[in-house]
Amino acid sequence: MMWRVFCLELRVAFRHGADIAGPLWFFLMVITLFPLSVGPQPQLLARIAPGIIQVAALLASLLALERLFRDDLQDGSLEQLMLLPVPLPAVVLAKVLAHWAVTGLPLMMLSPLVALLLGMDVYGWKIMALTLLLGTPALGFLAAPGVALTAGLRRGGVLLGILVLPLSVP
């Protein structure tokens, strides 16, 4: 049953291409614009690149997380998901993993390009890719309760950021 929920979430996400492309473009824009604010020194950019990439991935993931439960609440399918014969945490797990497959995985696939743009070495990129592999799904699990709390609000994204960002800072 969880596999069906996972596949359903993937199908819904791929029907709305802007929901996939938006966070990726945001991620690339933040990474591209950041050197304009700190200067083009390659040594400085290579040294602060992991932090830039993690913050950009965090913000890009938050953009997409807002719709984790919102669409289901609006069309009434959230109640149907609660009636499934599997525990509700398993349904949330499937939804968060599908969200990660749609946003976190493409962010990881962009990480070599971003590392090249910021002048990171191969060893640093491998460590950064590992932290993205662990950090992006963890962010989804941290944010799921906040998304559930703000799903019915019109401007829930702002409140979601206020709720989730303090939890995601190490």
Q: Could you characterize the architecture of this molecule?
A:
87% of the residues lie in helices and 0% in strands. The chain has helices spanning 2-15, 17-38, 42-65, 67-75, 77-82, 88-118, 122-150, 156-168. Helix 2 (17-38) packs parallel to helix 6 (88-118) and helix 3 packs antiparallel against helix 6. The model has no long low-confidence stretch (mean pLDDT 87). By secondary structure, the protein is mainly alpha-helical. The chain starts with a helix and ends with a helix. This is Heme exporter protein B. The chain crosses the membrane at residues 20-38, 44-69, 122-144. One of its GO terms (cellular component) is plasma membrane. It is a multi-pass membrane protein.
Mean pLDDT: 87
Give the termini distance in whole angstroms: 34 Å
Structural class: mainly alpha
Spans with pLDDT under 50 lasting ≥5 residues?
none
Total number of beta strands: 0
Beta-strand proportion: under 5%
Task: Using the CA coordinates, give the radius of gyration.
Answer: 17 Å
Helix/strand order, N-terminal first = HHHHHHHH
Number of helices: 8
* Largest β-sheet summary: none
Domain unit count: 1
Shape: elongated
Task: Please estimate the helix content.
Answer: over 70%
Function: Required for the export of heme to the periplasm for the biogenesis of c-type cytochromes.
Transmembrane segments: 20-38, 44-69, 122-144
GO biological process, one term: cytochrome complex assembly
Subcellular location: Cell inner membrane
